[in-house]
Amino acid sequence: MTHLEKALLLTELADRLIAKGSWCGRTHLQKAAYLLQSLLGVELGVEYMLYKHGPYSFDFEEQILWAQSNYLFAKEFKAAGYGPRLLPTPTSKEHRSQFPRLMKKYDREIEFVAQKVGVKGVAELEKLATALWVTSELAEPTDTRKRAERIHALKPHVSMADALAAVQEFDQIAAEAKAVTSNE
Questions:
Q1: N or C end of the chain: smaller count of CB under 10 Å?
Q2: 144-154 vs 122-137: helix axis angle to the nearest 10?
Q3: pLDDT tens-digit profile of 99-120?
Q4: How far apart are the C-alpha atoms of 121 and 87, rounded to whole Å?
């Protein structure tokens, strides 16, 4: 996939997140893109590492900067103390209309992620994305308690109860995601 195609998928994801009630700041878009790539197999070409607030990608940040420099995203500031919102531009919409097969190919996956995480806050997304990370890293990811313990060990500020809830929520989302990816 080209830089432009990846950026257009991210602008589509941002539009869908906003439609579901997301502020769509960088962190929110980054976590949603992580789910899109790592759970649903939409290859955005970014590598993630576990960071302060869950999985993070410097590659993703480069993609966003590329998209901004090509007038596909604009920033909107809410108020002092809030990070900027990433808004897809009219230029991005024009470009998306020129790639109908690409948009159709990933429509279900993008809609699924937007529906699942659109209204979540950053703290919820950190836990959910970390549950995916931990599930992917463990040799036997079926043990719910072990995954919750691993989340808590990696992120002591996440209580065991919250870690367990995140793993259970992730498992539900992963089960639903199989239906999205199996109908292609």
A1: C
A2: 120
A3: 999 999 999 999 999 999 999 9
A4: 18
- Placement of tokens 């040799």 in the chain: 139
φ/ψ of 21, rounded to 5, equals: 105, 5
In this prediction, residue 184 carries a pLDDT of: 54
167, 151 contact by CB (below 8 A)? yes
Compute the distance between CA of residue 8 and CA of residue 26 in angstroms, rounded to an integer: 16
Please name the residues in contact with 69: beta carbons below 8 A apart, sequence gap of 6 or more: none
Residue 18 and residue 87: Cα distance in Å, rounded?
Answer: 9
Own/partner contacts of 114-118, CB < 8 Å, gap of 24 or more, are: 114/13, 114/16, 114/17, 114/19, 114/20, 114/22, 114/32, 115/20, 116/35, 116/173, 116/176, 117/17, 117/22, 117/28, 117/31, 117/32, 117/35, 118/16, 118/17, 118/19, 118/20, 118/21, 118/22
Please give the residue that has the higher pLDDT: either 23 or 11.
Answer: 11
pTM of the complete model:
0.94
Residue range of the domain that includes 104: 3-182
176 contacts: CB under 8 Å, gap ≥ 6? 112, 116
Provide the domain count of the chain. Answer: 1
Q: Is 25 helix (H, G, I), strand (E, B) or coil?
A: strand
